[in-house]
Amino acid sequence: MVLLIFFFIFMVSVSLIKFSPMKLVICMEFMYMYLIFLSQRFMALGMNMGMYIMVFSAAEGVLGLTLVMDTGKLYDLKSKFFFGRF
Question: 20-41 burial by CB neighbour count: b if 16+ within 10 A, else e?
Answer without folding.
Answer: ebeeeebbebbeebbebbeeee
